[in-house]
Specification:
Length: 545
């Protein structure tokens, strides 16, 4: 399994795929994996590991863990939603939403740490514990032969200055493509009516009247129109998703090229660099509009509406692009393959028919599945203060996503080459980074909205006409039009900053303690098994001597 990809890279093999009849336990095959997953609440990880390998099984094990852990924040968010319905509070001024966001941030830290424990147990049971610690040299690594001062043997070396130049090119190209994504976001927000003519001084730069006119009262994208069941209001979001999808597809090719130019020596470094680029770009696409609404416009109602729109459109997009369209393409291609298989069987070459059928299927790429789930985790923990129902919606979509991913893996896509993996690799680092970022975002949402004003009203005052003229607020009345908007008093700005600093550092310290000290990444029984194995290895070694 390690040699075949290298031969493919060298051009000695055109395509590689394991056949469905490959040696596995007799009771496990594509059909049985799908049937067991179809009638189960979660994915059958043991069967997936037996048939597809531990790398694919680890993804589904993470999905199972993520889905089960979503129950707690879902209940908390449901309680917050019910409390707002029974009271006059909104997401902008509800003083109790901060407790939900603190719970979600701590929940995220505990979930990420607990997953490490789950992965350690799975890895031990599947015989891949410690896999990935060995550094594998990339076969396409290019370097000058030099004599290693440590071993005295010839080794390939690539200049650090050349790699630094490649990093600089990667940075410039990525920034340029991120700028295109930012422009697409600005156009989308104007079409959705989120940009207003009387905006703050910062927002006036991004107000495009030609586009914003489409969302004016009576226009085609008017947010309050009910024609065609209000579906026309989703068109700007759909267009934004389509543009972003094509940008992501283009950057996927660009990221591969940029990472290859960096010429990393080890496979792990190459993969980490590639994942970092693609995640940064695609996460920027997903989150930039939410960050703009939350921190530039400081409008929690718009943020909630944008999250709902993204959830709805993105769920439909995933179902179409990952399952329905590939399945239709597969069925259309199968007709041509069936004709070729009939000809092969007539010439007593039926052994090639199954291989041809497998090669006609599209290749499975695990990156996209991981990216979608990690982005959904970001929706839950980054904006918990603004959208308490995010966890509940994610729980519902995850239950569908598990079945969808299992269906496309067993019915649509080519069986991937089995890879040994003791965890989810670089994605574990991404999860930790999201948890740490969620501390900052939720604290900022709390202090920049009117939630903090509900606790310390003495630091705020009602907005006046001069605040609109100076660009501090967009209008005197808030979005609901029932109350006057609030701004921080000049004398209270210092205290708001201090409160934000204390909350951020206090919550950050708590999360760091949970991640680094409170919960060990490896369960006790796994540590004992490792010690026992090392002991017997030492005993055997001593006896051999």
């Amino acid at each position: 399994s390690y040699l075949l990809p290298d031969l493919h890279l060298a051009g000695l093999l055109e395509s590689i795929t394991p056949l469905d009849e490959a040696i596995t336990p007799s009771e496990v095959n594509r059909k049985s994996v799908w049937q067991r997953g179809l009638y189960a609440f979660l994915a059958p990880c043991e069967e997936i590991n037996d048939y597809f390998g531990s790398s694919v099984a680890m993804y589904f094990a993470w999905m199972n863990s993520f889905t089960c852990w979503l129950i707690l924040p879902s209940l908390s968010g449901l309680l917050c939603f019910g409390q707002m319905k029974l009271s006059s509070y909104t997401v902008d001024d509800n003083p109790y939403l901060c407790f939900h966001s603190v719970l979600v941030v701590i929940w995220g830290a505990v979930f990420v740490r607990n997953w490490e424990r789950v992965a350690s147990g799975k890895a031990w049971n599947w015989g891949v514990f410690g896999e990935g610690q060995r550094a594998e040299v990339r076969p396409d690594f290019v370097g000058t032969l030099v004599i290693s001062p440590a071993t005295g043997l010839p080794t390939r070396h690539f200049s650090g200055h050349k790699r630094l130049a490649a990093y600089l090119v990667s940075f410039v190209v990525t920034v340029l493509m991120l700028f295109l994504a930012f422009v697409a976001m600005i156009c989308s927000l104007n079409l959705q009516g989120y940009m207003e003519e009387h905006t703050t001084a910062f927002e006036k730069v991004f107000y495009v009247q030609v586009l914003a006119d489409f969302s004016k009262p009576g226009a085609i994208f008017d947010p309050d129109q009910t024609e065609y069941f209000g579906l026309l209001t989703f068109i700007p979001t759909v267009l934004h998703v389509i543009v972003i999808m094509h940008l992501n597809m283009g950057y996927r090719i660009v990221a591969e090229w940029l990472t290859t130019r960096e010429n990393h020596k080890y496979k792990k470094d190459h993969m980490n660099s590639l994942v970092a680029k693609r995640f940064l770009f695609e996460a920027f696409d997903c989150y930039i509009s939410l960050f703009y609404i939350a921190f530039a416009q400081q409008d929690m109602r718009k943020l909630r509406n944008e999250l709902i729109s993204l959830y709805t459109v993105d769920s439909i997009r995933r179902a179409l692009m990952e399952t329905i369209i590939p399945l239709i393409s597969r069925q259309l291609a199968k007709r041509r393959i069936d004709e070729i298989q009939t000809k092969l069987k007539k010439h007593d070459q039926s052994e090639y028919a199954d291989a041809l059928d497998c090669l006609s299927q599209p290749e499975y790429e695990q990156f996209d599945d991981f990216l979608e789930m990690v982005v959904e985790l970001g929706y839950v923990i980054l904006f918990a203060d603004a959208f308490p129902l995010a966890a509940l919606l994610t729980l519902a979509t995850n239950l569908v996503e598990i079945k969808s991913d299992l269906f496309k893996l067993t019915q649509v896509y080519r069986r991937p080459l089995p890879e040994r993996a003791a965890g989810i690799g670089v994605w574990q680092t991404v999860l930790k980074a999201l948890v740490l970022l969620s501390i900052v975002t939720n604290v900022l949402i709390f202090v920049m909205s009117e939630q903090l004003a509900s606790w310390v009203p003495s630091l705020y005052r009602e907005a006046q006409e001069k605040d609109v003229l100076k660009g501090r607020v967009a209008q005197i009345l808030d979005e609901s039009g029932n109350s006057t908007d609030l701004v921080v008093k000049k004398s209270g700005a210092f205290y708001v900053v201090v409160i934000a600093w204390l909350l951020e550092h206090g919550l950050g310290l708590l999360v760091m303690v949970v991640i680094d000290k409170g919960i060990k990444p490896c369960p006790w029984w796994v540590r004992q098994e490792v010690k026992r194995t090392e002991y017997f290895k030492e005993v055997i070694k001593q006896r051999a001597l």
